[in-house]
Amino acid sequence: MTQRALDSSGEQTPGPSRPAMIDAGAELDPVHPMEPPPPPHRPDGLSTAEVAERVARGEVNDVPVRSSRSITEIVRANVLTRFNLIIGVLWVIMLFVAPIQDSLFGFVIVANTGIGIIQEWRAKRTLDSLAVIGEAKPTVRRDGVAAEISTSEIVLGDLVELGPGDKVVVDGVVAEADSLEIDESLLTGEADPVLKRAGDPVMSGSFVVAGGGAFTATKVGREAYAAQLAEEASRFTLVHSELRSGISTILKYVTWMMVPTAIGLIISQLVVKDNNFKDSVARTVGGIVPMIPEGLVLLTSVAFAIGVVRLGRKQCLVQELPAIEGLARVDVVCLDKTGTLTEGGMDVTEVRPLNGSDEAYVNEVLRTFGASDPRPNASLQAIIDAYPAGGEAAWTVTDAMPFSSARKYSGAAFTEADGTASAWLLGAPDVLLPEGDATLAEIEQLNEQGLRVLLLARVQGDALDAPGAAAGAAPTALVVLEQRLRPDAGDTLAYFADQNVAAKVISGDNAVSVGAVAGKLGLAGAENTLDARRLPTDPDEMATAMEQNAVFGRVTPQQKRDMVAALQSRGHTVAMTGDGVNDVLALKDADIGVSMGSGSEATRAVAQIVLLNNSFATLPSVVAEGRRVIGNITRVATLFLTKTVYSVLLAILVVCTQVEYPFLPRHLTLLSTLTIGVPAFFLALAPNKERAQPHFVRRVMRYAIPSGIIAASATFATYLVARHHYSGEGALEAETSAATLTLFLVSMWVLAIIARPYTWWRIGLVAAMGLGFLIVLVVPWLQDFFALKLVGTTMPWAAVGIAVAAAALLEFVWRWVGRRFGA
After folding, report:
1. Where would you find the membrane-spanning parts of this chain (predicted)?
2. Domain end marker among 424, 447, 482
């Protein structure tokens, strides 16, 4: 069936040819539902009194902007975890059966959880404040005056104006349409724009790709379609994150290992060994607690949260936290020239009449052309600035066709001062001129200088959108524009080159001109340009062309999307920057979409990262932050999981040999603090420029498993030797002290390996942790507090010797793993 729209009289008129499910018994199309007759069009919009009445009745778009989790959700997520429950139960038990020093692990968890809540709360404040700054302000007509207002101030019946790039913020019915084309792909998945006429419905979440108009709001607040979707999936949804999913996988396996091992340990210590009950409970808990890598989850959340705060200070809005991680994996960044390498503004440097055209006449055409579009793009704005409308002009605009990135030109029809009717096109010369035209050679020379050239051509007749109108247009003049280069763009491109990130400039402009601009900014391979109209359609061939060239011109919106897909098919992680509507599809499909704050609302809606200061120079900071987070979490995860592995293995060895568990909780709290907790915090926040590698779980476990096995074996060997060496009263405390010394030294060596490459502060960090343990060993009251006292000289030196052998084995294993499986 053909969808039909209703005009203001209530009669049906043909609407755009588009399938619509309105048959009896059919399920309603959620994007194009059956609507009641639209309200009558009121060109002046609502009056102030009517707005006040609607606000009083609650007919206002009051859906709260939810850019992050609420405080309640943050507290719940940080407190109510599986491991916090386990540790909480063990903590309560220890408070009843052992001295306070054996309950220190509980206080550490409380402190860590508090830090996590505070950091995420800070990130929430940053996100919320930046979301308000970046929020779109639709233009609403009231009392005949158009003004920008907050989205939340729109009321039922408001007349909302639309232009290219504007997002439809509430549901409504088109009241005015001027070649209005709306992209509903965010709702339907269909990429083709839909031509809208008066009476057609528009849905929140769609956006304008061409033309302009206005619509009357018919559904606001939670009744709007986009708001209903937002209720089901708020903005704070976590996109796929290898880091988070990898940690979840690790924790799942840890749980499986921990449960049977803990049960065996409990039976071993409480049933088989006839020891003091409270001491047995304490040693059992001491064996269970270190199996839990609870700090790893916390540290990951803190690292993400701090990343959000850091980027927020640089006016960078991170709309999805894992986007920080995604940036660490980027190896190709696709840049849109306009607004990224160049500033938004342009200047007309020259107008060259063609075919004997009169210069004064051409100037008048350009002056009137500028007045034909109420929402000019950057090129037309430059013409308006150069040829402002004069009060004496007698020309009138009779028709206008806004610029479309698919067409590559715009159009306008006039009635001239003498009553003559004329129609004109203004756009890309290589689109409007036939191939081989002599004028193209002249244009090519200008393009090679990095100048942008538009062709003004006269259309036969006055039908702008008639089939073949562009093909029959008569060239009248060349308009030469010079783009303003961003002063910081060159340094940014140099940064990407230094970080082995390939930059691809993708533009709708002429390829040679774009290449010249990129060359001025020092882009490597800027001479390798390709006109996208010659780009192969085969995905594999397109991927090859993308890898071989650095600059692409005359790219259509769909091609941008295909180019991103082609790069991804070769295993590349792609970031896409853009600020125009023609970038939306590519931004959606890229691994990371980066939008300029001044860009269209549509691009900001689909991008994971919004540069609110519109500065391309912010991107290096964003990429560096991503690499810092993922690289450092990968490092410190090895520390946490080494502890888990040696704790599980020690428990198994204790169960199998039926001996007392060597450690009390206080011993492992001390070791965890000095060899994992404190250093991991500093290492997680350190600078890190290495591009993240895939297979997080595999990369971490291939080091953690052998390290944990070596640490557990060395520690248990020392413990067994000490059991034969010591006897009598206090023997167990001496045995524990010797085993603790070995475990500390081996764990310190793991830390020393992970801290590489060394800098002054890394060396100082490792030395400070060693000094802390030494102080515990030599200060009497700390010896008593932690129940650590080395007895004699033979066994302590034996413990050191075993640790040295284990350290040498660690070095060998780490180097072998690095050679065998890659760094």
Report:
1. 79-98, 104-121, 253-272, 292-311, 636-655, 667-688, 700-722, 734-754, 761-782, 794-814
2. 482
157 and 202 fall within a common domain: yes
Domain count, the chain: 3
Examine the domain organization and report whether 454 and 360 are in the same domain: yes
Q: Determine the 3-state secondary structure of 636 from DSSP.
A: helix
Range of the domain at 597: 316-339+485-617
Residue 112's pLDDT band (cuts 50, 70, 90): low
H/E stretch holding 602: helix 601-606
Residue 614 zone, left/alpha/beta (φ > 0; ψ -120 to 50; rest) = left
Average pLDDT over residues 448-452: 79
For Cα atoms 745, 747, 750, give the angle at the middle one, nearest 5 degrees.
115
Long-range contacts of 87-90 (CB under 8 A, 24+ apart): 87/289, 87/292, 87/294, 90/285, 90/288, 90/289
Give residue 739's Cα distance to chain centre. Answer: 46
pLDDT for the residue 600: 61
**What confidence tier does 105 reach under pLDDT thresholds 50, 70, 90?**
low
Residue 64 lies in a domain: no
Closest CA to 644 of 268, 255, 280: 255
Same domain, yes or no: 501 and 410: no
| Ranges assigned E (strand) in 193-273 | 194-196, 201-202, 207-219
What's 818's DSSP letter? H
262 to 91, 541, 584, 665: CA distances (angstroms) = 15, 57, 53, 14
Stretch 544-549: mean pLDDT: 91
Residue 783 domain-assigned (yes or no): no
Residue 26 has pLDDT above 60, yes or no: no
Spatial CA neighbour of 97 closest among 295, 351, 277: 277
- 475 three-state secondary structure: strand
574 with 508, same domain? yes
Query: Of 102, 158, 166, 336, which residue is the catalytic one?
Result: 336
